[in-house]
Amino acid sequence: MDKVSRSGYYRWLIQSGKPDRDYNDYLLIKKIFDRGKKKYGWRSIQMRLPKGLMNHKKIKRIMKKYGLVCRIRRANPYKQIAKATLEHRTFNNTLNREFRSLVPFKVFCTDITYLPFNYRMAYLSVIKDIGSGEIVAWKLSMHIDMELVLGTVELLKNNTALPLESFQNIMIHSDQGFHYTNPQYIEQVKKLNMTQSMSRKGNCIDNSPMESFFGHFKDDVDYKNCKTFEELNTLIENYMQYYNCERYQWNLKKMTPVEYRNHLLKVI
């Protein structure tokens, strides 16, 4: 016995003169289904029917009864591979609040802060050495884009005060913000052979060295009264010089960060 399709059976049933209570509703659904090039599911069909005419259960039942199966576009495997390789990633909190490092150039922390001035907004990205307390790189921008953090790491590479041939075995810690989970940033850190560490989600204490620095910075710097971006940038540049070379800190044995860094390098 030859098999008959579901739609063929119902077509025969209609032509045989036997009544089908769903037929008129089927014609209405099929008209919308065909107009959608057989790509409409029950949701798309219900949205195009007169409001309240049929509920979703009836539409699904009639579509199944008459064999109206929508075509599902197959996922592009190349796009899936690209998405998998470019998706954002998080890293374990390897630092785990071990902020009392006594070795310079081993653990860096980084973050971004907002600086409102003259009815505008600037963004400051900073990298701090946990061992010495020194600010080893910073970048100011009017845009909170990837170039802000990528540029900060690039400045870190170009810091002549860092006596490093390689960044291998250095940890760089951040929060789980968009910039630090971005594939571009991950790749840049990976090329330098640094290890990424991230705060737990919603836990700012895990990156408290940066929170502390930004707190002191905003207490010390009158950034809100700057009229231009250039003025703000100069103000920050002067402050970074002051912070690293002139600002004595009690927990650094009453030394400045640069003095403390040199002191630690001598005793290692």
Summarize the structure.
This protein is 43% helix and 13% strand.
**Ends distance:** 90 Å
Corresponding CATH superfamily of the largest domain: Ribonuclease H-like superfamily/Ribonuclease H
Rg from C-alpha positions?
31 Å
Main sheet?
Answer: 5 strands, mixed
In total, the number of domains comes to 2
Q: Can you walk me through this structure?
A:
The protein has 268 residues and is an alpha/beta fold. The chain contains eleven helices and five strands. The chain has two domains: 6-65, no CATH class; 107-267, Ribonuclease H-like superfamily/Ribonuclease H (Nucleotidyltransferase, domain 5), CATH 3.30.420. 43% of the residues lie in helices and 13% in strands. Strands 3-2-1-4-5 form a five-stranded mixed sheet, sandwiched between helices. Strand 1 and strand 2 form a beta hairpin. Helix 3 (42-48) crosses helix 4 and helix 6 packs parallel to helix 8 (183-191). The longest helix has 17 residues, at 229-245. It is elongated and about 100 Å long. The N and C termini lie far apart (90 Å).
Relevant terms:
268 residues, alpha/beta, Nucleotidyltransferase, domain 5, 2 domains, 5-stranded mixed beta sheet, 11 helices, 13% strand, elongated
Write the layout of secondary structure elements.
Elements: H1 6-15, H2 23-35, H3 42-48, H4 56-65, H5 77-86, E1 107-117, E2 120-129, E3 135-141, H6 146-157, E4 171-174, H7 178-181, H8 183-191, E5 195-198, H9 208-220, H10 229-245, H11 257-267
Parallel strand pairs: 1-4, 4-5
Antiparallel strand pairs: 1-2, 2-3
